[in-house]
Amino acid sequence: MTRVQLALASAMTALLTVAGTTVAVRASVAPGALAFIAGGRVATAAAKAAPAPAPAAAPASLGARSRPLSDPVSMDAALAAAGYTFPPGAGVYAAKITKESGGLAYDDFQGGVGAVTTNFWPASSIKVFAAVGALEFVGQQGFTGAATVAFGGGSPRTIKSIYDAAIRISSNADYDLLVEIAGVDWLNQELLSPSRGLPSTVIQRSYTVGGNLRVTPAMTIAEGGRTVTVPARNGKVYSECPQGQCSNLYEMSESVRRVVLHNEIPTSERFKLAPADVTGLTSALLGAEGWFEPAVAKVVGTGARIYGKPGEVPGRDCLDVTLIDNGKGQRILLSATVPERQGGCPALVNLATAALKLLTSR
Predict the structure, then answer these.
(1) Residue-range domain boundaries for the chain
(2) Considering the domain 3-360 in this protein, what is its CATH number?
(3) If you write DSSP's letter for every residue of 110-176 in order, what string do you get?
């Protein structure tokens, strides 16, 4: 998807509202703990996925550094000293990832409005959670992304084809289907929950004109000769998120980290995904065109892989949520947002450039 297409698709979200009157309030606690090859889409298509490492044991000696957002260091003063000032409402969350004897370690940074504010529109960057939610829901029924799903009398499609389109080309219609597969209540109560380390994210808005994700028609799931019919479901309104969709840079960063690093993180941190779907989601994240590419190419190099999910709504916010791998052992989580009225996507590239210069100099 080109940036113009992404902007047009994302603009639809500004028109949508949450329907219904039943209200649910979800308990919240403090957090526990896209992409193409920089330099062009041709390089992305030719890139080879790295072999999956052996599953990780729980870190025994890293302490708080064994999880992201352990003790984030403010970047504001260092960036200001280098000549960069955050636009009002802009923010960044970053973590340098290193392999140590106890497992993966994370050195965290934040700046501007910080890692956990929800005062921005998460746009298409939230779609990874919709994909994971759909896969975990069908997984509970004994299916994987290879299963087909059909709503009512509609034609069946594989779940993989739906999540790939939602992430790789940012299809809003396919995002809606993912939320309908999981169901609004299951998604917000089972996956997006304090117990999963995701207390702030709420998904309940359709990204298509006239869509209503609270009312999900009956669907039939089939795989390997086995079929299950899930009855129609009615969801609730989650009043702790009055704007309809809520998240923060840290939690959306987790959506990418837990997919891309699935085989390297402790089992307790992993999403409940079939191996083929970990591969499928990782491929989609690597194939999605993001906003950070010019910054990564300039600072990290044109061979770096960028796994992530960008988002933008004209007139609201521009953001990108990524894991950057330079192919030489340096990996960085980088997520940032800039309000459109403060420069939007061009200003986001400037923020990413400044942040990466600081992170790679340490």
Answers:
(1) 3-360
(2) 3.40.710.10
(3) EEET-SS---S--GGGGHHHHHHHHHHHHHHTT--TTSEEEETTPPPEEHHHHHHHHHHS--HHHHH
